[in-house]
Amino acid sequence: MKVLGIESTAHTLGLGIVSDEEILANQKDMFEPEEGGIHPRKAAEHHYQHAMELLHNVEQEADMEINELDGIAFAQGPGIPQCLDIGAVIARTLSDKHGIPMVGINHCLAHISIGIRTTDAEDPTTLYLSGGNSQILDLRSGRYRIVGETLDIALGNALDKLGRKMGYPHPGGPELEQLAEETEEIVELSYPIKGMDLSFSGLVTETQRKIGDVDDELLANSFQEHAYAAVVEALERAMAQEGSEEALLTGGVAMNSRLREMVEKMCEQRGAEAYVPPPEYCMDNGVMIAEQGRLEMKAGRETKLEDSEKRPNWRPDEVDVEW
Ligand code: ATP
Ligand code: FE2
Predict the structure, then answer these.
(1) What is the pTM of this model?
(2) Which secondary-structure segment (H or E) carries 181?
């Protein structure tokens, strides 16, 4: 079975094709704001302007044409409404033109499935940290339960906000990582954990107030140490509660080497395994949507035109795991 996946939940437009045997194509183009965060309309404009080009590129890379596909998967949610519309329109158009069934995918579940496909993980507790989402997910009684999550903003968003306040370009995550590597010292900040949930906006404000009084390197390192220790502690609690022996770290923030190190160390101490997909499959991408579509279509799922409306607030625990 060959499936095309279309990702357009936020600033990345990604198209990918997978078959049962291999990953056949992975193309993407990212909207990069000149200043500030993601502007929904501008991101959506970027996506429709690049759609045709990416479509040609995936056909070329996979050495096949759209009409040879068995399915078309698109990220139906959660995400920015204006951006979700673009992916859904591409899917409906291709599905109708070529008579190929389509399936609407939950973006968070796709991160888990591509993680399982590209690592040795089988039944992991997932720590998914990106610009728009921060969740800990675990499969229990046929659904991926959200066993912990941010109560306000996502961790990637917190890093980007702080980076911006400190005068660094978007995205802030990698900028802060580089700064943090310059020092081993930290200043004390509050610890953003509440049971197995997290909260980052207070930590951003607290750190932001110290800009100018404390060196950027020290601020960056302090923010990272507090925020990452908190997410790893929440992950550890979740793993203990679920009796889990595998952790899967994914989302754009999984690119951070200090965070990876903390997750690996925690797993080592518990006798568990830590898995991180290759970078191109941690960040948002079309391949993960294609993989999730492949799994769901094999399990007999299909989304009819009348059910293909975007779902901006779609939570992953609303989906029955039948694959
Ligand atoms: P989603 O739609 O899943 O919320 P997204 O649009 O935020 O995803 P991703 O590519 O998954 O896109 O993640 C981007 C985030 O990852 C940004 O907030 C960025 O700062 C963060 N990030 C990228 N690299 C690093 C790094 N090395 N350290 C920390 N954060 C990073
Ligand atoms: Fe994502």
Answers:
(1) 0.97
(2) none
Long-range contacts of 301-305 (CB under 8 A, 24+ apart): 301/103, 302/101, 302/102, 302/103, 303/76, 303/102, 303/103, 303/104, 305/92, 305/95, 305/96
Ligand 1 pocket mutation, candidates 283, 285, 287, criterion most atoms within 8 A of CB: 283
Band (36; pLDDT cuts 50, 70, 90): low
What angle in degrees, to the nearest 10, is found between the helix axes of 155-165 and 172-180? 70
Tokens 């720590």 belong to which residue?
127
Predicted pLDDT of residue 299:
98
Rounded distance from Cα 107 to ligand 2 centre (Å)? 6
Contact 247, 275 (CB under 8 A): yes
pLDDT at residue number 8: 98
Which residue stretches of the chain are H helix? 40-62, 81-98, 107-118, 155-165, 172-180, 201-208, 216-242, 257-270, 279-282, 286-298
The CATH architecture of the domain made up of 3-111+281-318 is 2-Layer Sandwich (3.30)
How many Å lie between the centroid of ligand 1 and the Cα of residue 84? 18
Which residue shows structure tokens 């229990």? 140
Where in the chain do CATH 3.30.420.40 domains reside? 3-111+281-318, 123-276
Distance 283 CA to ligand 2 centre (A): 6
**If one looks up domain 123-276 in CATH, what number appears?**
3.30.420.40
How high is the pLDDT of residue 170?
87
154 Cα nearest atom in ligand 1: 4
* Ion ligand 2 contact residues with beta carbon within 5 A: 130, 284
